[in-house]
Amino acid sequence: MTLFSHYSYWITIFLAIAGVYIVIARSNLVKKLIGLSIFQTSVYLMYIAPGKLIGGTAPIVSPDFQVYSNPLPHVLILTAIVVGVATLALGLALVVRIKDAYGSIEEDEILARDRDT
Amino acid sequence: MRTGASRKTKSWRGTGIPDRPVSRVITTQLPILLVVVPLIAAPLMVLVRHGASAWVLAVAVSWTALAVAGGLFVQIADGSLLSYWIGSWPPPWGIEYRVDIVSAFLAVLVSLIAAVVIVYSRESVRSEVPQDRHYLFYTMYALCLAGLLGITVTGDAFNLFVFLEISSLASYVLIALGRDRRGLMAAYQYLIMGTIGATCYVIGVALLYLETGTLNLADMAQRLPAVSGERPVLAALAFITVGISLKLALFPLHLWLPNAYAYAPSVVTAFLAATATKVSVYVLLRYYFTVFGGSAVFERLPMTEILLALSLAAMFVASVIAIFQNNLKRLFAYSSVAQIGYITLGVSFDTMTGLTAGIVHLFNHALTKGALFLLLGGIALRLGEVRLDAIGGIGRALPLTSFGIVIGGLSLIGVPATVGFVSKWYLVLAALERGEWWIAFAVVGSSMLAVAYVWRFVEAAYFREPVGPVRNLKEPPASMLVPAWLLVLACVYFGIDTSLTLGGAGAAAHDLLQVQK
User: What is the ipTM, given to two decimal places?
Assistant: First the structure.
């Protein structure tokens, strides 16, 4: 059953599509950012899952172990998480200022207000 | 050599036949200085918390970056390749910075624009950014510069992503720093689209990493032809194309650009229009030619046809939209989308002449749009707005500024003795070389549309009586006029003496195509 043995990929694809769908379908600016974060999170999984080998250990050289997991994806994703947190923080900060300036965080209301002026 | 094909290797491992001297300069720290100098200056500016001091630091940083980039360009001008190993870890295990003619060309362009724009920024920022945020403005400027320069020199796929995000996050902040509240929404929309683009890029890199087991771009290029799975490589190509196209505002993924350019502070518009999209084009070139160039994926996907169709669509649709804009910054923003179409058109030809035209237009358009947006910033400083119906008769009140915009406009159209002519001449040559007459006509035809939108400025500035506040305007201060006019004069100079730009672009195109053929 390769369909199920690759279940981590299915989760990745589901998260990615769900995330992008939220970004497109929601008008609330905070919900859009949540969708964006879910999309980014799916990529974390995409990197980390293939790095894990069943029965593999941490890459410490020892005659007792033959199979090692790849540590590089973890390091990469540590960086990607930092980038993701920074993006989310900046996005939320922008939403706070948008709320101050427009009194709303619904995209259609904000665009309507700009059209009126 | 892994591939067994006749492709020459540029390997640092010395396997295969080296086709040019590889100078391993570990003692020379230039490649890393290019990134480290602005990256360290940024937190210092936050610590001093003082606008004027931060500006002095930013000027020093930008000029240092220009000197470093110039030094790099001189070092690799003989066709050699600089390889810098971060922490002395040999590639492909460590991160490698790799400077060849293409990256040096871009590094010089970015740092040159940064050095000119930062001098200009003092007065403009004072009027368009609230006082207590000035030091933050220069901090973000330095960070953005560090990210953009980092992209040009890095030879590592994931490191490139990190720099892409450093420059992008800084540019979101820069766009939101103005007084116009619409800038906030423009920055938010750019953040959403930019992050989707960057995430698509990382997905592409993940697929390439899973297939090749390496993140070093040069190593990846060598291993790609030998990988077994074709579909993941195709998917990687698709994801990277979409991700980077979002960043470079390839039609129809340009939706973030007009608002971001229109509502950002003038300095930011000029800086981003001249550098950010150009660096993204560089990333696309790097992947298409250096990484994927040697593998057979291009025969599997009609990439040239897709790129050609989108470029033509950009040239016409965006130009037509530009004609109907009232806000001049928005007008020239749509014009930018059209001009990016010319660049990608040159790339899509996949020939020596076409690629030269694309790269030279990348440089020429950076000069032209940099000049135009800087001059518009001068109008914004004096008048407070840049709407066409508010600037009637400005040609008499601000003769120098208006004349500069006219010259920039002529360059957008492609009138001889401006840089725009050089690019379009080569685009037409490349089209004729392929025997495709209709593309040559399309290039000329879309230039006619440029005549229409440039004429709208000329009509407003010179054929209307000055009314209201326009009558009493004075030229912007010399600290703004001189940098803007430097770029205007560069537009004319490089339109007449093309040896440096065409020579650089030609060498870069030769370098990129070498891998492929």
Answer: 0.94
